[in-house]
Specification:
The model has no long low-confidence stretch (mean pLDDT about 95). It is elongated and about 75 Å long. It has 2 domains: about 10-190 and about 300-330, HUPs (Rossmann fold, 3-Layer(aba) Sandwich), CATH 3.40.50.620; about 210-295, Orthogonal Bundle (Tyrosyl-Transfer RNA Synthetase), CATH 1.10.240.10. About 55% of the residues lie in helices and about 5% in strands. Helix 4 crosses helix 7 (about 130-145) and helix 7 crosses helix 8. The protein has about 325 residues and is mainly α. The structure holds adenosine monophosphate and tryptophan. Tryptophan binds near residues 51, 138, 141 and 156.
Length: about 325
């Protein structure tokens, strides 16, 4: 007999800060998985612009980066018809719930956040209250939408744990209100390392431009950066301990083409690193070309982008408001 019981679709939510064009590492490690998740989950994705102002931002540049990040999310394949895409600051419930949650978050808990410790060491001249309460805003981003899963990288796990603690605390103190979400550490996410120092992760804040591929790099730049990638002196394409540079290139090539290490080793058997690096560069450029084309089209029509942002924000606000109203009522506000 056919199984007619249909499980409700699970929800997933994640956000990304508009602080510059993501790298190939962000794409293969995180963003590409967001695209794949659209088929399995009901997805909510936002540009976390309120989080970005916890460090100093130049207004015109911030505005441009918000447009760019929103356009890029669509360009990589997030479909506004399938997923809810929005800009955090356009949904006022985030700031509202954040205040309520920050009143339930302890100073000690926030002081233990490693990201706060790192960022306050890095920006010693601007250790503002927002940098400190950042995790309460992130908890609000999540809990407003009652998601089951939050796809994030390792570095955000501690904030997700705090979000779970806050949800449980609220549910116990008042009554069940929030879904307690689980971090979703991506299964197929590649770990992409620097092209210049392959023991370090690829990062957009690297001073050496040759160390990372930006999703905006053109074909020539991509190929040039791969041709300059640090390898070793054996001149043999194989995956082995100690061959960090070659291993990294093989992982990138595999993540893009779907080929296994054995297939890659066979393909480049008897060939030098030059051919291999060019092939990796070409594969990456071919993967990024359609994304870059869609990105340019979207950025060329700001009115359409704004319309998409508006629709997303309205829909998000409708969902978020239901949670916010419940929370306020339970806390004793007159609503
Ligand atoms: P970040 O730009 O470092 O805040 O990272 C945003 C997301 O991209 C996180 O989920 C990270 O796990 C992921 N990510 C960043 N850099 C890399 C990398 N080199 N390889 C794989 N994933 C990465
Ligand atoms: N703090 C996250 C980062 O820097 C971005 C973020 C903000 C986020 N709100 C979120 C991620 C909610 C997941 C869920 O990467």
């Amino acid at each position: 007999m056919e199984n007619t019981v249909c499980e409700p679709q699970k929800r997933a939510l994640s956000c990304i800060q508009p602080t510059g064009i993501p790298t190939l590492g962000n794409y293969l490690g995180a963003l590409r998985n967001w695209v794949a998740m659209q088929d399995e989950f009901e997805c909510f994705y936002a540009v976390a612009d309120l989080h970005a102002v916890t460090v100093k931002q130049e207004p015109a540049k911030l505005r441009q980066q918000i447009y760019e990040m929103f356009a890029l999310l669509i360009a990589i394949g997030l479909d506004p018809e399938k997923s809810l895409l929005f800009v955090q600051s356009q949904v006022p419930q985030h700031a509202q719930l954040s205040w309520l949650l920050s009143c339930q978050t302890q100073f000690g808990e926030l002081s233990r956040m490693t990201q706060f410790k790192d960022k306050s060491a890095k920006h010693a001249d601007n250790i503002n209250a927002g940098l400190f309460t950042y995790p309460a805003l992130m908890a609000a981003d999540i809990l407003l939408y009652q998601p089951d899963y939050v796809p994030v990288g390792e570095d955000q796990k501690q904030h997700c744990e705090l979000t779970r603690d806050l949800a449980l605390r609220f549910n116990n103190r008042y009554s069940p209100t929030f879904t307690v979400p689980e971090p979703y550490i991506m299964k197929t996410g590649a770990r992409v390392r620097s092209l210049q120092e392959p023991t370090k992760k690829m990062s957009k804040s690297d001073e050496n431009q040759n160390a990372f591929i930006s999703l905006k790099d053109d074909k020539d730049t991509i190929i040039r950066k791969f041709r300059r990638a640090v390898t070793d002196s054996d001149a043999k394409v194989c995956y082995a301990p100690g061959k960090d540079g070659v291993n990294n290139l093989m992982e990138i090539y595999s993540a893009i083409t779907g080929k296994t290490n054995e297939q890659i080793e066979a393909e480049f058997d008897g060939k030098g690193y030059g051919d291999f690096k060019t092939a990796v560069g070409e594969a990456v450029a071919a993967e990024l070309a359609p994304i870059q084309e869609r990105f340019a089209t979207l950025m060329g029509d700001k009115a359409q982008l704004e319309a998409l942002m508006k629709t997303g924000a309205e829909h998000a606000s409708y969902v978020a408001n239901k949670t916010l109203k419940k929370v306020m009522k339970k806390m004793g506000f007159v609503i």
